[in-house]
Amino acid sequence: MSIITRRPYRGEIDLDAIANLINTCETVDQLEEGTSVTELKQSFDDPFIDKERDLFLWQDADDQLIGFGRLWIVPTDTGIDGFLGFRVHPTARSGDVEEQIITWAEERLRQVSQERGLSVNVRCGSRADKADRITILERCGFKRDRYFFTMARSLQEPIPEPKLPDGFTLGYSKGKEDVEAYVELYNQTFIDHWNHHELTVERILHEWQDPYYKPELSLLAVAPDGTYAAFCYCRVNPEENQRNGRCEGEIAVLGTRRGFRQQGLGRAMLLAGMQQLKAAGVETAKLGVDAKNVSGALRLYESVGFSTVKTHISLVKEL
After folding, report:
1. CA 308 to CA 298: how far, in whole Å?
2. Is residue 268 a contact partner of residue 164, using CB atoms and an 8 Å limit?
C-alpha cells in the first residue's frame, strides 16, 4: 500500500492545489461543483470553520494532493451537526483515502463533543446517481436521512407578474443597517423546518462579503407595520457560469415568516426573484428544495414552471 499522509491546511499557500484537485475531480464527476481560488478563500473564511482543525489535506508519497476534507460544524438546540465535504483524486479512489477522511472527521467531531458537552452527528451528501460514493458512506455507517431536488426553470418563458397582498411593499436588504432584522426574519421563517440551524449576524455578514453578492438580488416583502415578512435571496456566480458554459442564477433562499403565511407572499417573492435574475441577464433559474418540505414549496415551484433536474441524498451518522 502506498504511503498516505495527512496534514492541516496551511493557509492561502494551499488554495491553488485544493482548487486543482476539486477541478480535476470535476472532469470525472461532472457535478458542476468546480471552484476557483477566489471562491475557496471566501468559503474557508466562514465563521463556522476553524481553519487549523476543520480543513485537512491528504498527500501521497510524492507529496501530491490526493484528498481534501472540510468540516462545517454547527450547533443545534440539542447537539452539534458536522457537515463533511470531501474530494479524492480520481486515481486514488479505492475507498481507503475516503475512509481516512471520514475517520478524521469523526475524530474531530468527538473532540468537539467533549469540548462542548453535546452529542454530535456527522452529515455528508451525495448526488443520487453517484453509487460509489454512497456505497463508501454506507459502509462507514452512514444512513440515508433526506432527499433534496435541484430544480430549474427557463427565464426565456414569460414570468407572471408578482402580486403582493394589499399594504405590503417590495424592498431590498440594506446590509449592515438592517442585519439584525434580516437575521430575525430568517430564523423566524425556518425555525419549524427540518434540521434548521440558526443564522447569526456574523455569518450573514460573511455571506454579504462574497464578491458576487448584489443587494438588488436580496428582496424583502415589508408588511404595513414595517415588519420583514418574507424574502427571496438570489445569487449569480459568473465564474461558475463560465466553468459550466451556462447562464444561470440561483434562488438561494426563499421563505415567509411565521404569522404571514397563506397570503401568497411566497409566490410573489419567487416571481419577483425570477424577474430580478432575468433583469441581471440570467437565462435559467435554479433552486434546491427538500423533497419532504411541509410548507408546499415543491408544489409552488412546479406551479410556476420549475422541474427537477437532479436528486441529492443527505446521509447521517450518529457519533
Report:
1. 10
2. yes
DSSP-based three-state secondary structure for 125: strand
Identify the top-confidence range among 89-98, 203-212, 225-234, 293-302: 225-234
Neighbouring C-beta atoms of residue 228, cutoff 10 Å: 21
What pTM, to 2 d.p., does this model score?
Answer: 0.93
Backbone angles phi, psi at 120, to 5 degrees: -135, 150
Half-sphere exposure of 78 (CA within 13 A, CB side): 4
Of all residues in the chain, the percent with pLDDT exceeding 70 is 99
Strand partners, 315: 124, 144
Alpha helices of the chain — where are they, by DSSP H? Answer: 15-29, 37-44, 51-54, 96-116, 131-139, 179-190, 201-208, 238-244, 265-279, 297-303
- What does the pLDDT look like over 7-26, one tens digit per residue? 999 999 999 999 999 999 99
| Chain CA centroid to CA 232, Å | 15
Question: From CA 265, how far away is CA 253, in angstroms rounded?
Answer: 14
What average pLDDT is seen over the chain?
94
Strand partners, 122: 82, 317
Quick check: 66 and 92 in contact, CB under 8 A? yes
Grid cell 427557463 — which residue? 154
- Write out pLDDT tens, residues 164-194: 999 999 999 988 889 999 999 999 999 988 8
Q: What's the confidence (pLDDT) of residue 14?
A: 98
Question: φ, ψ for residue 48 (rounded to 5)?
Answer: -85, 5
What's the pLDDT score for residue 285? 98
C-alpha cell at 129: 446517481
Cell 427565464, residue located:
155
The CB density around residue 34, as the number of other CB atoms within 10 Å, is 20
| DSSP states of 238-302 | HHHHHHHT--EEEEEEEEE-TTS-SSSHHHHHHHHHHHHHHHTT-SEEEEEEETT-TTSHHHHHH
Q: Which three three-digit cell numbers place residue 126?
A: 451525495
What CA–CA distance (Å, rounded) separates 177 from 88?
A: 42
